[in-house]
């Protein structure tokens, strides 16, 4: 059986403990590989390797560093099929999604920052006739990148690329639930000739490996994407050490639909926003708010489309939805379905586990599930489910829609559907969310600030925001 290895100082290494954890294919329920059950000793070795590599890496020109990242992006493009299959095997998502979204985006992340860093400049502030200030942006040193299971290589590279481009050396940990493509990326780093120790990947659990990375005194910044509770743990552990933190956390996003929307486009995208990646995207629109005059028509059209979604073997081209990522996560989502019923919700469609035939007979499949008749204040409507479960809610006025949309501790994303230009802007500005889409969803420009407000996170990723996060500004004031 395949045993993944840590990637430390440019070499593949077994965990110091000698212990491994099973890695399960969620579409079949079978253990198909073993991953290192690493601990603080492996983190220590990785930090030391990163520290040793840092001076030479930081001294390279931005162009030279950028070229390594561009090379990696080209290797990802070359290996698209292999990486897409690996992602689907690890995560359960449809192969079509891995092939068209996850892996191409991983390549784009590396390409984007590999080229972008060459245009990264710092500011100068001229005090007329008195002095000139200029800002030097220095890499931080060793930084940690910790990513979740829902978009494995996509989010792993989204962190690593700007960290490396800015001149830092990285100790990274993919989710222990989906470690495979990070392992394959390490192989590509060797092929790309990335200097040893510049990127180190330590596999294992959050409480052991992730915590050791965050608490290590030589790790200067942590870029984390994952759950809000884990974000709180990291913030608590690192606050006394004054580390820089970028936290991209949970969401409970609203899709706000007005009666004057482009109906067909709205229904089609609302379905996609609800159930793409089995509803396991932090940006998924899980609360669908519809103006009352359109509610009945929207509900009928939405349910028709949802019932036409095919839940199936993620390797089959016709599958719109694959497996949930793990047995534990399936159980969590099922508990929310039970909760929605306890809270008085009306189940409109779905709610049941899907039992497939053949190789996927033991996979973690769930029907796309839609509820209505739940108050905007209930747990189902305020807590992150992170699965294929959504609610429909009618509203009468714009104010009411905003009250519903903003009634959650999260503030990651939202989408607004209307043909009224003024209203679109007004509502967008009043939504408590870091990202608002108008008449679209998940359209991404990598230059824009990405992240959430409230309990959805601290800081922003993307573009200059990420390069600024991964650098320390120093002002030099020169008297004229
Ligand atoms: P998680 O918080 O359980 O794990 C994320 C990562 O953190 C994993 O690598 C895990 O091993 C590690 N980790 C766990 N405990 C740790 C600790 N004490 N110290 C350091 N690291 C630790 O999240 P998950 O279940 O993998 O992912 C799902 C969550 O991620 C959802 O809440 C989702 O909304 C969120 N998410 C947010 C974004 C965003 O951009 N805002 C994007 C994707 C996913």
Automatic annotation (TrEMBL):
Active-site residues, Swiss-Prot/TrEMBL: 248
Cross-referenced Pfam families: Aldedh (PF00171)
PROSITE patterns registered for this protein in UniProt: ALDEHYDE_DEHYDR_CYS, ALDEHYDE_DEHYDR_GLU
Entry keyword annotation includes NAD: yes
Stretches assigned to the Aldehyde dehydrogenase domain: 19-476
UniProt entry tagged with the keyword Transport: no
Taxonomy, superkingdom: Bacteria
Keywords, in A-Z order: NAD, Oxidoreductase
TM spans (from-to): none
InterPro entries per the UniProt record, alphabetical: Ald_DH/histidinol_DH, Ald_DH_C, Ald_DH_CS_CYS, Ald_DH_CS_GLU, Ald_DH_N, Aldehyde_DH_dom
UniProt family annotation: Belongs to the aldehyde dehydrogenase family.
Protein name (Swiss-Prot/TrEMBL): Aldehyde dehydrogenase
């Amino acid at each position: 059986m395949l045993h993944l290895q840590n990637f430390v100082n440019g070499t593949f290494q077994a965990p110091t403990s000698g212990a491994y954890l099973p890695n399960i294919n969620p579409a079949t329920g079978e253990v198909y590989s073993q991953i290192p059950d690493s601990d603080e000793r492996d983190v220590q070795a990785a930090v030391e390797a990163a520290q040793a590599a840092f001076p030479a890496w930081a001294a390279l020109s931005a162009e030279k560093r950028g070229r390594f990242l561009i090379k990696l992006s080209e290797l990802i493009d070359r290996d698209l099929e292999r990486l897409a299959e690996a992602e689907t095997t690890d995560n359960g998502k449809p192969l079509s999604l891995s092939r068209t979204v996850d892996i191409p985006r991983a390549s784009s992340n590396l390409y984007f920052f590999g080229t972008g860093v060459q245009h990264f400049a710092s500011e100068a502030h001229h005090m007329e006739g008195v002095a000139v200030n200029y800002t030097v942006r220095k890499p931080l040193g060793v930084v940690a990148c910790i990513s979740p299971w829902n978009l494995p290589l996509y989010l792993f590279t989204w962190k690593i690329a700007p960290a490396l481009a800015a001149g830092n050396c990285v100790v990274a940990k993919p989710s222990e639930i989906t470690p495979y493509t990070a392992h394959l990326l390490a192989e590509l780093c060797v092929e790309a000739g990335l200097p040893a120790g510049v990127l180190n990947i330590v596999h294992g659990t959050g409480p052991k490996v992730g915590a050791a990375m965050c608490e290590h005194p030589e790790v200067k910044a942590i870029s984390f994407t994952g759950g809000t509770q884990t974000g709180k743990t990291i913030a608590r552990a690192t606050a006394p050490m004054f580390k820089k933190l970028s936290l991209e956390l949970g969401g409970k996003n609203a899709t706000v639909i007005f009666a004057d929307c482009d109906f067909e486009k709205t229904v089609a995208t609302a379905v996609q926003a609800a159930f793409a990646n089995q509803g396991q995207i932090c940006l998924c629109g899980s609360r669908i708010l519809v103006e009352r005059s359109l509610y009945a028509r929207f509900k009928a059209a939405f349910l028709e489309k949802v019932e036409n979604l095919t839940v199936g073997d993620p390797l089959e081209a016709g599958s719109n939805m694959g497996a949930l990522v793990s047995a534990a996560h399936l159980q969590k989502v099922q508990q929310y379905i039970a909760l929605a019923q306890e809270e008085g919700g009306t189940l409109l469609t779905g709610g049941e586990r899907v039992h497939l035939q053949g190789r996927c007979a033991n996979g973690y499949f769930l029907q796309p599930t839609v509820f209505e008749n739940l108050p905007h204040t209930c747990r189902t409507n305020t807590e992150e489910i992170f699965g294929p479960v959504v609610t429909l809610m009618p509203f009468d006025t714009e104010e009411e829609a905003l009250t519903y949309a903003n009634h959650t501790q999260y503030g990651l994303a939202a989408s607004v559907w209307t043909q009224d230009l003024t209203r679109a802007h007004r509502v967008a500005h009043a939504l408590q969310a870091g990202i608002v889409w108008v008449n679209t969803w998940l359209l991404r420009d990598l230059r824009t600030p990405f992240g959430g407000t409230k309990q959805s996170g601290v800081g922003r990723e993307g573009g200059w925001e990420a390069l600024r996060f991964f650098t320390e500004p120093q002002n030099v004031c020169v008297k004229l």
